[in-house]
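[agent] plan:
  1. take the single chain provided in the ticket
  2. run structure prediction with default settings
  3. attach C-alpha cells to the ticket
  4. add a short note for the reviewer (M.T.)
[agent] executing step 1
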Amino acid sequence: MDAPRSSTRRALHIVFLVVAGAIVFANTLHNELHLDDVYRVEKNHEIERFWPPWRHFADPRTSSALPQIVQYRPLLPLSLSVGEALRKPFGIERLPALHLGNLALHLATSVLLYLLFAELLARWSDVPSPHGAAFVAALMFAVHPVSGIPVNYVCARDLLMMMFFLAGALLVYARMRPRDTITGWAASMTLLGISMLAKQNGVVAPVLVFAFEVMVLGNALRSPGTWFRPLAFAAVVACFFVWTEIGLGFSDLGQLETSAWSHWIYACTMLKVHVFYYLRNAAWPFYMRPLPYVEPAAGLAEPAVIAGAIAIIGSVALALAVRRKLPLLSWCIVAYWVLFAPTSSIRPFRYLATDYRQYPSLAFLSLAVVLVASRLPHRLRVGLALLLVAYFAASSVMMNRLWRSGEELWGQSVRYGTTAQGHLNYARSLELRDPETAQRHYLEALRQSPRNAYALVNLGLLHVRQGRGEEGLAYLRRAVAMVPDWAMVHYHLSKAYAMLERPRAALAELRIAADLDPRNVEYQYEAAYELQQVGDVVGSLPYLEQLERMTDGYRLSAFLHGYALQEQGRWPEAEAKYRVFLERHSDHFQARFNLAYGLMKEGRHREAISEFHEVLRIDSDYASAHHWLALSYEAIGETELASRHANLFAAARRQ
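[agent] step 2 finished; step 3 output follows
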C-alpha cells in the first residue's frame, strides 16, 4: 500500500512542479534576445544547420559569430541547431521555440532536483515528510526569479544544461550510496562529463562529493574511500581539460578572465557581493539586472568586505558545527558556496556580478531553507511554504516582463546602476526613438570605460547617421587603432564610409574585416557582393568559396558564385550554382536570365529556350528575351517561332 501511495504522491508532485513552473514563465515566450544572444543565436549561422553535429565538439568557433566571446560549450550550439532543425518544418516562430527550450530544461532540472532532494531527505534527515519537503524546495527553486534569468536569457541554456546533468550525476550518486555499483559509477561520471560539455561549472563536482562523504555520510578523512570517490570525479574533470587545453588548444578561462582586477581585489569584492548582492537577490529580487555596477573593493579593511567575510566564514563554521546533528543542512551550506566558486571566488572574471551565477547555488539554498523551516510547527511550516512560493512566483511573473524589450531591460540596469556595457546596450535600445538620450549613455559608457571599442563604434555610427560624418569617423578610427585585429571595428568603419558615399574606403575596410574573421558569414558575403558591384569578379571568388564551406545557400551567395564562375568561363560549375540557387529562388530574374544565356552560348538551345520563357514569365516586359529566343529558335530550325520573337523584339524597341 505504501509504495503505490508514494509513487502517486511523487507523480503528483512532479506534475504540479511542471505546471506551476510553466504558468510562472509563460510570459517569457516572446521576450527579445539580449546580450550575447545576438552573436550566439541571431547572427550565429552555425546553428542554422544540424549536420554534422560533431563539429561543435571539435571547433569552439561554432559557439559564436563574435570571436571575442567564443567559448567551448559544445552542447549549447548543438542544442540550438537541434531546435532550429525541429522548429522549421512545423513553422514555429523562433523566439517562442528558443524560450520553450530553455523553460523545458529548467523544469526538467527542477524535477531532477526534486528527486535528488527526496532521496537525500529520506535517507539522511529526520524531516516529518521527506517527499513533501523535497517538493517545496524544488518548487521554490522552480519559480524563483533567479531561475527566471536563464529561462529568459537564451544563451544561459548552457547553465541550464550544466545544472540538469550535474543534478542527474548527484542523483545517481546519492542512490548508489552506500553500496557502490559499476553501473552507478559509470552513469554518474558520464553525466558529469556531459555537464562539463555544457558549461564548466561542474568542475566543482569532486568537492561536492568530498563534502558529501565527510559531512553527510560521516566518513573519516583517513579512510581511503573518502578520497577515492572524489578523485574519480576529478579524473573526469581532468580529462575534459586535457581535451580542451591540449587536444583543441583552447582555453575557456583565457576567454573569460580579465586583468582589470588582481586576484586579491576580485576575492575581496566577491566577499561583499555574495552578501549584499546575491543573498539580497534571493530574498528581494526586484533589483536584479543585467551587468550590475559593482564598486571594486579597496581591500580587506572595507566594512562591507569584513561583513561578507564574517557571513561566509560564519556560515561554513556553522555547517561544520552542526554536521553531526544536521548533516544534510551542513552539506547544503557548503554546496551553496562551492557552486559559486568557479565564477565568484578568486579568479577575476570579466564581470564582477552576474545574476545567473546564483542559479546552481539557489537549488541548495532552497533545500537549506526547507530544512530549517522543518523545525517549525506544522501549520506555521505549511503557511510559510505557501507564502514563499506565492511571493517568488509573483515576483518572477513581474521580473519576466523586463525582458520584453531592450529598453525595458536595460532601463532597469540604468535605474539601479550598471556598467559601461549596460549604458551602451541601453543607448542601442533607444537610438532610433531618442538619439539624444542614446548619445548621453554612449558617452557615459566611454566615461566609465574609455577603451570600450563597442561604445566608440556605436557612438561613431550614431554621429554619421546624424550628419556629423567626420566626428563619427574619428570615433570609429579610434576603435580601429585600439583593436586593429578585431574584424568588428573594421566592418562598422566600412559601414560608416558607405553611408558617407566613400565606396573605395568602405570596400577596403570590409575586405580587412572579412580577412580577419573568415568564419563570419556576413563579412564574407558582403565582401563578395561589394567586390562584384565594383566589377572585381575574380576578387569575390575566395570569399564566395569560403562562404560555401561554412553555410548552405546564404542569401544570394550561390547566384553570386555562379556569376563569378560564369565570368571566368567556368560554365559547368556556374550552371550548377545557378540551378542550386533557382531551386530556392525560382523567380530570381537575373539568375534565370544568366542561366538561359549561358545555355544558349553553350549551344544547348532547347534548354535555353525553356529558361528564356521562364524569364518572360517573371518579367513579361523584358524585351531582350525575345531577341535571344529568336536566335535560339533559329539555331534549331524553328524559323516561324524565330520570326515571331524577332518581330516582338522589334515592336518593343519601337515603343
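[agent] step 4 note for reviewer: The domain at 589-655 is CATH 1.25.40.10 (Serine Threonine Protein Phosphatase 5, Tetratricopeptide repeat).
[agent] ticket updated
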